[in-house]
Design brief:
α1 runs parallel beside α4. The chain contains 4 helices and 9 strands, in the order βββαβαβαββββα. By secondary structure, the protein is an alpha+beta fold. It has one domain: Glutaredoxin (3-Layer(aba) Sandwich), CATH 3.40.30.
């Protein structure tokens, strides 16, 4: 079952690149969340997308949003990826793709994990979904536009 605009974002707890548990509902009432699912650390497309979020990260936090990336990579892989590209935001390890399945993130060509960004408002409601495997910058631009509106 896929998550749709207007749904309450399913809650989850995953481990960050720093080994800390992060729970989505902890942001409720505090910040909007830009939750982006990406296929794999340190691949060309995922690096381009993550660096695009890095380059606009301060703009997101200045308007009260937190950026969180999720992939099936391990926390140690995320740590290396974040250090290599100076990523200032949280990367969460979804080994086994439990949260990816919970959100209904589709695969591409039945094999490659999908690239989908969810904008979640302070009340925990999904306000926008952007699904594109190849428009890396579009994920950032769409998320910024929506966060500015809410």
């Amino acid at each position: 079952m896929a998550v749709n605009v207007g749904d309450t974002a399913p809650d989850f707890t995953l481990t960050s690149q720093n080994g800390q548990s992060v729970t989505l509902s902890d942001f409720r009432g505090q910040k909007s969340v830009v939750l982006y699912f990406y296929p794999k650390d340190d691949t060309p497309g995922c690096t381009a997308e993550s660096c695009a979020f890095r380059d606009r990260y301060t703009a997101f936090t200045d308007i009260g949003a937190e950026v969180i990336g999720i992939s099936g990579d391990s926390a140690s892989s995320h740590q290396q990826f974040a250090q290599k590209y100076n990523l200032p935001f949280t990367l969460l390890s979804d080994e086994g793709n439990r949260v990816r399945k919970l959100y209904g993130v589709p695969t591409t060509l039945w094999v490659l994990p999908g690239r989908v960004t969810y904008v979640i408002d302070k009340e925990g409601v999904v306000r926008h979904i952007f699904d594109s495997q190849l428009d890396f910058q579009g994920h950032v631009n769409e998320a910024m536009k929506i966060v500015q509106e809410i």
